[in-house]
Structures are given as C-alpha cells and as structure tokens.
Amino acid sequence: MLVAKYHDSNCEDKEILVDIRKAVDSSMQLRSKKDLIENFIATVNTATKVDDDWIKFVTEQKKTDLDTLIAEEKLKPDETRKFVDNSFRDGILKTTGTDVDRILPPVSRFGGGNRTAKKDGIIAKLQAFFDKYFGLV
Predict the structure, then answer these.
(1) DSSP 29-48
(2) What is the DSSP letter of 90?
(3) Domain ranges in the chain?
(4) Among 34, 60, 120, 126, which one is most buried in terms of CB atoms within 10 A?
(5) Contacts of 108 by beta carbon, 8 Å cutoff, 6+ apart
(6) CA distance 18 to 13
(7) 3-state secondary structure 107-127
(8) Which among 121, 130, 119 has a CA at the least distance from the CA of 65?
C-alpha cells in the first residue's frame, strides 16, 4: 500500500520511503523480506503498475534466488524445486524425514564428508529462502 502511495506521488515523496522502512523494520514478518522490498522500490517509476509488477518481480527474484541456491550447494534441481513448491503449498519447510536427503548432493558418509554440517547449512539456507518468499507468491 505504501509503495503504491509512493508511486502515486510520482516517486518523489521521500517521506513515504521512510515510512516503508519503518514498517519493514518494525514487522517480524517483513524483516526477512527487506532486501526484496527495497530492490522492488528501486525499480519503481511512473510507468510501474505496482501490483502487477510486484508479483512479476517477486516471481522472477524467487526463481533466480532458488537457481543460485541450487547451483551454489550443488543440489538436485528437480527434486529441490519440488521440495520448495511443496513447502510453500504446505506452509512449512519440513526439515525432518527423507525429503531433505533427496535434494542433497552425494556426500560420503564415511570419508569425512561432514554430511551433517552440510545438511544443516543447506537447511538454514532453505529456511532463509522460505522465510523471504513465504506469503508473497
């Protein structure tokens, strides 16, 4: 709503930007989405259709971030996308059971591959990704 108000002011009312930052900083749910919101505001101009462009922006950014996470952690792409889609559908990131194990890259269980640390790191990154995008798309 504040971004639409900022857009309606022809992107000139800097007071609204301060209000947006205050709203984001004061909300537990929005703090994980702060970078996303600020990046979207940076793209807003007089030609922007705020609601439509927000959905498009979030969808593209979500795909880009997930692709980056998959590449960095060498996760199995199809399984990871399915896992993430199911998590958004269910409203929770399930970190127990075999679902997480299916997306992990092969790691030696015996040769000191430190599988548990790797798994915990990936779960933390997936949780951050989930928190950032949950409720937006």
Answers:
(1) HHHTTHHHHHHHHHH--TT-
(2) H
(3) 1-48, 55-137
(4) 126
(5) 115
(6) 9
(7) CCCCCCCCHHHHHHHHHHHHH
(8) 130
